[in-house]
Write a structure and sequence with these properties.
Chain A: This is Glycerate dehydrogenase. The complex is a heterodimer of chains A (313) and B (338). Chain A is of the alpha/beta class. Chain A is built from 11 helices and 12 strands. Chain A is globular and about 65 Å long. Classes of the chains: A alpha/beta (313), B alpha/beta (338).
Chain lengths: 313, 338
């Protein structure tokens, strides 16, 4: 299969890169100085694209690759892929569900604990060498806090299961109520935010969920509320979030994703009630390898005319 | 009853003369954080040794006949000497999770009841332990530092962490806190094993008869036991070596349970993967070698210091003291049987 051209949209994982290089003819899109001339010269060789949360296959790229048969995503989110265009052209799309569910859910809880219990601030305080007897770092208890989940898919359910072990009552918002699930349903995100102590974004990014966490939701969550975002940056109206934190209309935030990664609003850097992570939801050695294996597995299955492992389209 | 040691404020608040006295040796953290009246009760009054100019033994001798109970936050040890100077002492209540600051032998000898924090602080301790474990494996504090220094945009992706799911977790001491830790980590898909003074028959976790074997069979060791003569430096070179270079240690119990010098050496040399530490051998002094390490997360002995726990604990302590003075059973008595 080493004559099959695979375009890797951006650097994502060196093991994946290595494997794609070994098995296919790999084109590293980010190393190309003139992208449109590159696409012009190589359009007949490229039959697959490997994308991720940063870069995938938009309409423009798809149009530029007439031989494109499959987009294998190194991510579970599909917001960087023009799914409609892929459907239209009969291009297959795969992603990496399930293998990263646990890591993302673990990180969501980790962020909740880090924000409420001020783990990062405590660590910073000790490292400053200024700890003296009689100093008390007072934090907020996590056990028993009401956790509200936007999106009760695989990741949302995994977050719920973990939070329940901390005796957290679970509530959620979803496009449709799930009657078989025992958690409290709210028909709108504002109502969910008003009720819960910790609001976590765990839904896919679509046109409908763009800026699903806006000023009204943030105000409803309130000065003691905490927002956790392990979804996509554009789920949250970022400037509104920043001003709410500054004006103390929101109690705290734990964010793994941002509207314009890797750029993070610098105003957040000095806030001790905010924990910022560089999009590491699935960022473990074990999971990235499993995700890479899925990408490779899907590509090989496709070109060997076998059933795809994790097809979306 | 001598009025000299009582504050005039105290005198004017209640009809003081018939309320029994509870001795406080040093101001508890809750007074410093929430004010002097945080633990007030209409059924008793406080005698604050720290407000007197007299040295403690003299102060105790002066009030020997008045003091029936001591309230200890853990900051001031309740020694045999103190106890011997108080012939009417019948109760020691403490808000500390640990009891190593109270001479339990002397209490047992004198028939003095002891009331503790019960299990009220266990959730907070367990939450800290889990928080630390996720932080160390997933590099939360280190990555937060990275982003807040602007390095994500200038230096690119942060190094990968390690998956928590499926990790083998070894709990040292399966008491109330250890049990809460186990319950939480179970939900993350960890497999739980433990070492305790005795095997617990109804518990679904694997028991190891000693800590070295436990360490050899786990990826993360979580210290949840009490500090006693037996557990001093329980986590030593042999245990850390058995834990190995992919192992993580979390200590939310007491600093002296771990041989700190050896732990620091292992961390600096990369002989273990990382550590989460709320407690140290000589607080507030922390080995400076740890400050340069990204695989260590530290906190200033605050695993139980949440606003909610202060409130719950305050109510519990007052409840215990009121029960004692009403001749009712204590809410959270500590068994003093050997």
């Amino acid at each position: 299969m080493d004559s099959i051209g695979v375009l890797m949209a951006c650097p994502m994982n060196s093991y994946l890169e290595q494997q794609l290089d070994k098995r296919f003819k790999l084109f590293r899109f980010w190393t190309v100085p003139d992208k449109s001339s590159f696409l012009n010269s190589n359009k007949d060789s490229i039959q697959a694209v490997a994308g991720n949360a940063t870069a995938g296959a938009d309409a423009e790229l798809i149009e530029a690759l007439p031989k494109l048969e499959i987009v294998a995503n190194f991510s579970v989110g599909l917001d960087k892929i023009d799914l409609a265009k892929c459907k239209e052209k009969g291009i297959r799309v795969t992603n990496t569900p399930d293998v990263l569910t646990e890591d993302v859910a673990d990180l969501a809880i980790g962020l909740m604990l880090a924000v409420l219990r001020k783990l990062c601030e405590s660590d910073r305080y000790v490292r400053s060498g200024k700890w003296k007897k009689g100093d008390y770092m007072l934090t907020t208890k996590f056990t028993g806090k009401k956790v509200g989940i936007i999106g009760l898919g695989r990741i949302g359910m995994a977050i719920a299961k973990r939070a329940e072990a901390f005796s957290c009552p679970i509530s959620y918002y979803s496009r449709n109520e799930k009657p078989e699930i025992n958690y409290k349903y709210y028909p709108s995100v504002v109502e969910l935010a008003a009720y819960c102590d910790i609001l976590v974004v765990a839904c896919p990014l679509t046109k409908e969920t763009h800026h699903i966490v806006n000023r009204d939701v943030i105000n409803a969550l309130g000065p003691k509320g905490v927002l956790i975002n392990i979804g996509r940056g554009p789920h949250v109206e970022e400037p509104e979030l920043v001003s709410a934190l500054f004006e103390h209309r929101l109690g705290g935030a734990g964010l793994d994703v941002f509207e314009n990664e890797p750029y993070v609003p610098e105003e957040l850097f000095g806030l001790d009630n905010v924990v910022l992570l560089p999009h590491v939801g699935s960022g473990t050695v074990e999971t990235r390898e499993a995700m890479a294996d899925l990408v490779i597995g899907n590509l090989e299955a496709h070109f060997q005319k076998k059933p795809l492992l994790t097809p979306v389209v | 009853m001598k009025a000299t040691a009582m504050t005039s404020e105290n005198q004017s608040r209640h009809s003081q003369s018939d309320l029994p006295y509870v001795l406080i040796l040093k101001p508890p953290p809750s007074f410093l954080l929430f004010g002097d009246h945080f633990l007030d009760s209409s059924k008793f009054q406080y005698l604050k040794a720290y407000e007197s100019p007299l040295p403690l033994p003299q102060f105790l001798q002066e009030h020997a006949q008045s003091v029936q109970a001591i309230f200890s936050s853990g900051l001031a040890p309740v020694t045999a000497e103190t106890i011997r100077l108080l012939p009417r002492l019948g109760l020691v209540v403490t808000t500390s999770q640990g009891l190593n600051h109270i001479d339990l032998t002397e209490c047992r000898r004198r028939g003095i009841a002891v009331a503790g924090a019960g299990t009220i602080l266990s959730a907070d301790c367990a939450d800290s332990a889990v928080g630390f474990l996720i932080d160390v494996l997933r590099k939360i504090s280190a990555a937060n530092r990275y982003v807040k220094q602007g390095l994500w945009s200038s230096q690119g992706a942060y190094p990968l962490g390690y998956k928590l799911g499926g990790k083998r977790v070894g709990i040292v001491g399966l008491g109330s806190i250890g049990t809460e830790v186990a319950k939480r980590l179970d939900a993350f898909g960890c497999s739980i094993s433990y070492n305790s003074r005795s095997k617990k028959p109804l518990v679904p976790y694997t028991f190891y008869p000693n800590v070295v074997e436990l360490a050899a069979n786990c990826d993360a060791l979580i210290i949840c036991c009490a500090l006693t003569d037996e557990t001093h430096h329980l986590i030593n070179k042999e245990v850390l070596s058995a834990l190995g270079k992919d192992g993580v240690i979390i200590n939310i119990a007491r600093g002296p349970i771990v041989d700190e010098k050896e732990l620091v050496r292992c961390l600096v040399k990369g002989e273990i993967r990382g550590a989460g530490l709320d407690v140290f051998e000589h607080e507030p002094d922390v080995p400076v070698e740890l400050f340069a390490l990204d695989n260590v997360v530290m906190s200033p002995h605050c695993a139980v210091l949440t606003t909610e726990s202060f409130e719950d604990l305050g109510k519990l302590m007052v409840g215990n003291i009121e029960a004692f003075f009403s001749n009712e059973p204590l809410l959270t008595p500590v068994s003093l049987d050997g």
